[in-house]
Amino acid sequence: MLEVTGLSVAYGGLRALSDVSLAVGEGQFITVVGPNGAGKSTLFKTISGIVPPQGGGIRFCGEDLLARPASDRAHLGIAHVPEGRQVFKSLTVRENIEMGAFPEAGRRHYARTLERIHALFPILEQRHAQLAGTLSGGEQQMLAIARGLASGPRLLMLDEPSMGLAPAVADMIFDRISQIHREDGLTILLVEQRVAEALELCDRGYVLETGRIVLDGPYQTLMNDDRVRRSYLGIG
Ligand code: ATP
């Protein structure tokens, strides 16, 4: 579904991604883990069209994404749930969800999707008229995911959904993401610093360090890798 090949991105003289390649198959759950500043957010911003690359290619469902502006990429079915949630604080919960539904696929299935969002996150139904800026961090994260779902995506990209959340709230968010993948069959690309929890969810994972993929493989392979165990899981 998504194929990233040899991607390189720089901010001025600073190289943020070097020769990054990864693949996401339809229906898969793929996780990218790595420390602060590894380039995880840059990878997502390049896929969704916010940051232009210096080299490499990105194909999505047979389309050359780099030839399309960011707005087209949303219409093609890419939903980017950004780091730090970025909800529209002065709009209500319901208005935030409606804002996500601007692509044709989102508008067509809006009523059904809203029902699904409320089943996943009942608090968003209870708080539908509340201003998003007054929600707790966990609630804002639920809203950011809901806004992404409202676009009717084929690929849901989640940038550090657990950031700044208490462990119990982060676990709940991970559970919901897993549920969306399992029950709705949605293809998911997740980047996370909570390595153990994030890898547990995925079919396949990639380890990104200082802009390079240093390791990739299925869940079991990564969990058994000495380097992953030592550097990210604190084992061995
Ligand atoms: P974190 O988990 O801390 O958000 P990350 O893995 O998502 O980190 P990025 O945010 O992609 O990493 O940053 C990768 C590198 O690019 C970092 O060195 C960062 O300082 C730099 N960088 C990111 N955005 C910009 C920008 N707009 N201008 C200049 N440098 C940037």
UniProtKB/TrEMBL annotation:
Keyword Ribosomal protein recorded: no
The keyword Transmembrane is annotated on this UniProt entry: no
GO MF annotations in UniProt: ATP binding; ATP hydrolysis activity; branched-chain amino acid transmembrane transporter activity
Alphabetized Gene3D superfamilies for the sequence: P-loop containing nucleotide triphosphate hydrolases (3.40.50.300)
Keywords from the named record: Amino-acid transport, ATP-binding, Nucleotide-binding, Transport
Domain ABC transporter span(s) in chain numbering: 2-235
Pfam families: ABC_tran (PF00005)
GO biological process: L-amino acid transport
InterPro entries for this protein: AAA+_ATPase, ABC_transporter-like_ATP-bd, ABC_transporter-like_CS, BCAA_Transport_ATP-bd_LivF, P-loop_NTPase
Protein family (similarity comment): Belongs to the ABC transporter superfamily.
Protein name: ABC transporter ATP-binding protein
